[in-house]
Amino acid sequence: MKKIVARHGQNPLLSPKDLKPSQPEMVIECLLNPGAFTYGGKIGIVLRVAERTKQKEGTVSVPIYDEMGRLKIMEFSLDDPKLDNSDARVITYDGEQYLTTISHLRVLFSTDGVNFEETTEYPPIFGQGTYESYGIEDCRVSQIKDTYYLTYTMVSSNGVGVGLKTTLDWKKFKSHGMIFSPHNKDCAIFEETVNGKYYAFHRPSSPELGGNYMWIAESMDGMHWGNHKCIARTRPDRFDSARLGAGAAPIKTEKGWLAIYHGADHQHRYCLGALLLDLEDPSKVLSRSEVPIMEPEEAYEKVGFFGEVIFTNGHVIDGDDIHVYYGASDEHVALATLSISEILKTLDHS
Ligand code: MAN
Questions:
Q1: 157 lines ligand 1 (CB under 6 A)
Q2: pTM over cut 0.70
Q3: What is the CATH superfamily name and number for domain 12-348?
Q4: Per-residue CA distances from 88 to 27, 31, 99, 103, 349 (Å)
Q5: Quick check: CB of 19 below 6 Å from ligand 1?
Q6: Ligand 1 test: best mutation among 99, 162, 308, most atoms within 8 Å of CB?
Q7: What pLDDT, on a 0 to 100 scale, did the predictor assign at position 188?
Q8: How many angstroms separate the Cα of 66 from the Cα of each of 128, 234, 296?
Q9: Measured in angstroms, how far is the CA atom of residue 324 from the centroid of ligand 1?
Q10: Rounded distance, CA 275 to CA 272, Å?
Q11: Which one, of 246, 232, 166, lies nearest residue 202 by Cα?
């Protein structure tokens, strides 16, 4: 019998030491959450590189970009009572939140899907302007005809929203601004239209009524979105009790659209689950995982910058195989091959 998940023997494929920081003041803290695609006979990934300023004793410093895209370093004394640095990912100073790391994206290519190389031919993509001053993160890539749609998280003190860029050649990018306003992330555009309409998953967060649920939206042009519907909510006492969000674009199967998503519980443990959606109306959920299809098991998934995390936003399909690229413990990039037919079997229950 085929297994649902087979991790690659060379895992983790990429770790912070494998790339060079973007500037001398910075240290790469995490390589994570890549989008994946195929281009020119190669497999490409759009990697999130999270960097931190070099730390000095007695202080904590955080990086931000100014309006001109220049790096600015903010430094706080560790004994300052206005400082709360109990979370590895965010610090709060005097009511204002800052990310401890700032992320940019890098495009790497591979001929075997395992060994990836960075070349000067494809320069890194940095955050730009007011809405990306805390960086850009977790890029999904959807290919529709010749165009690649990059949906990614824009982070600034204004909030967290979804940005869109398009490219034909991975060298020139067109920016289309913010397509889902704060607080929103985890956006993946379907790779084909359904009855003439574009569809996208997204994940707004509502602090009062509602929560961190997965939504779907429609569009006539792939840029302007409406008719939003909530398709999956958190479930008490399950792996997805606190939050969930889409992985990469869903996979078209005979039984429906198969969407892989991440679900986290209140201990911030991130696992993967699956949803099966109606082929003609993807806002209709046919089935959903009762238990995770993949959960943190290996040392590199359990211990790291932020442990007990498996997070995916990129995969490449090859017949029944889904080559899932994922962020492991918010620090490394790893690869696992999942079987479409085996996942579908687990979704037969409803
Ligand atoms: C959360 C985490 C971080 C990320 C921020 C902003 O705190 O997912 O990794 O940097 O959100 O998106």
A1: no
A2: yes
A3: Glycosyl hydrolase domain; family 43 (2.115.10.20)
A4: 15, 15, 9, 14, 39
A5: no
A6: 99
A7: 98
A8: 9, 37, 37
A9: 21
A10: 10
A11: 246
Distance CA 64, CA 166 (A): 25
Q: Which of 301, 255, 315, 299 is nearest to 280 (CA)?
A: 255
Which residue has the CA at smallest separation from atom 11 of ligand 1? 89
Ligand 1 centroid to Cα of residue 196, in Å, is 34
3-state secondary structure of 208: coil
Tens of pLDDT, residues 77-98: 999 999 999 988 999 999 999 9
If we measure between CA atoms, which residue out of 171, 66, 156, 165 comes closest to residue 124? 171
Answer whether residue 155 shows pLDDT above 80: yes
Ligand 1 center to 177 CA (angstroms): 20
User: Would you say the CB of residue 153 lies under 6 angstroms from ligand 1?
Assistant: yes
- Domain chopping of the chain, boundaries: 12-348
CA pair distance 184, 159, nearest whole angstrom: 9
Residue to mutate (ligand 1; options 90, 158, 178, 262; most atoms within 8 A of CB): 90
CA distance 322 to 342: 11
